[in-house]
Specification:
- The structure is a single chain.
- The chain is an all-alpha fold.
- Helices cover about 60% and strands about 5% of the residues.
- It has nine helices and three strands, in the order αααβββαααααα.
- The chain has a three-stranded antiparallel β-sheet, with no helix packed on it.
- It is flat and about 80 Å long.
Length: about 260
């Protein structure tokens, strides 16, 4: 389907039936250099990975587990609990998942790794001059009646355009929105807290430029993910109203949710 070099790289990356973030970065870099549509390439890559995992999966007896189908079995008393609950309804034991908590940390580490591998800043050529030099002030003093309408027109045009978005941004956005929602109390609180910390305050002046639009787009992505996790929390912790109210207060303070009347 693709050239021999890319096909060999795909074969080597999928040899162990897994696709690490580093391997994915290399493949995407090669595909982009070859002029291959990245959305199509990712779809083909996922299909090949699925086929590889399917062929490598041995047929064995199901391992012993604390889960029965879509329900949980309490490790303390053995009672069956409903799906999406964070504690046993019989004895009150809180369900915890250390592995899932580690996955959260790995998830944010991968996001940082993607960002650190970004080649070029979207705004590296932006003029850092504040525009308050003597010549600029004189120009505004004489031609304000022309410059102000031009600035307004430019602002309206820029406002209608989407923010600058790179391949790195697209991959980070996809990773965030596809990350599975945590399923225990600590994980939900940890994930929402970390998501909220990613939301930046943008001044009114900053909202007028390209970088402000870029920051606003990322804020909306993290807000959307935080609301998704909060929706799961309301199902998982329906008997823990105090925690739900605390999370809701955090989201209100961060202006993700509106204050209730």
């Amino acid at each position: 389907m693709y050239n021999d070099n890319i096909e060999k790289l795909i074969e080597m990356a999928l040899m162990d039936g897994e696709l690490s973030e580093k391997e994915k970065q290399i493949l995407f870099k090669k595909a982009e250099a070859a002029g291959i549509d990245l959305d199509e390439f990712e779809m083909v890559l996922q299909a090949k990975l699925f086929e590889k995992q399917k062929s490598n999966t041995p047929v064995t007896a199901a391992p012993k587990s604390d889960k029965l189908g879509d329900v949980k079995k309490c490790p303390a008393c053995g009672a069956i609990s409903q799906s999406f609950t964070t504690k046993c309804s019989d004895c009150g034991t809180e369900f915890r998942n250390i592995e899932a908590s580690q996955n959260i940390n790995k998830f944010f580490e991968k996001l940082d790794e993607l960002e650190s591998n970004r080649k070029d800043s979207l705004f590296e050529n932006k003029n850092q001059d504040s525009g308050t030099s003597a010549s600029t002030l004189i120009k505004w003093w004489i031609f304000w009646w022309i410059l102000i309408p031009l600035k307004l027109i430019t602002f309206i045009i820029n406002k209608s355009k989407p923010p600058k978005w790179s391949t790195t941004d697209s991959r980070k956005e996809e990773m965030i929105m596809n990350f599975p929602v945590p399923n225990s109390r600590e994980e939900i609180i940890e994930f929402i807290t970390l998501s909220v910390s990613k939301i930046e305050n943008i001044s009114m002046l900053k909202r007028l430029d390209e970088e402000g639009k870029y920051m606003s787009k990322w804020n909306s992505i993290w807000k959307k993910k935080a609301i998704q996790v909060f929706t799961k929390a309301k199902l998982s912790m329906k008997d823990d109203k105090s925690t739900i109210e605390s999370i809701e207060g955090l989201l209100i303070d961060s202006k993700i949710l509106k204050q209730k009347n």
